[in-house]
Amino acid sequence: MKIQILGTGCPKCKKLAEAAETAAKELGIDYEMEKITELNDIMNFGVMMTPGLAVDGEVKVSGKVPTLDEIKGMLK
Q: Active-site residue among 10, 27, 33, 43?
């Protein structure tokens, strides 16, 4: 599974990356984490507000940091 964090490196982006990593580890998922920081690349996902979370190239959330349980639901 590929988990992609879409954001420029702001505090919320870092928080989302940490939460996504924690969720994946707690679920025992084999994953690869990728941080996408270039604005053009982020916009190619259709994300206009960061942070964003994409799983295997599909955007699951943008513009907020979901809870750990919400992220776990997105990863299942």
A: 10
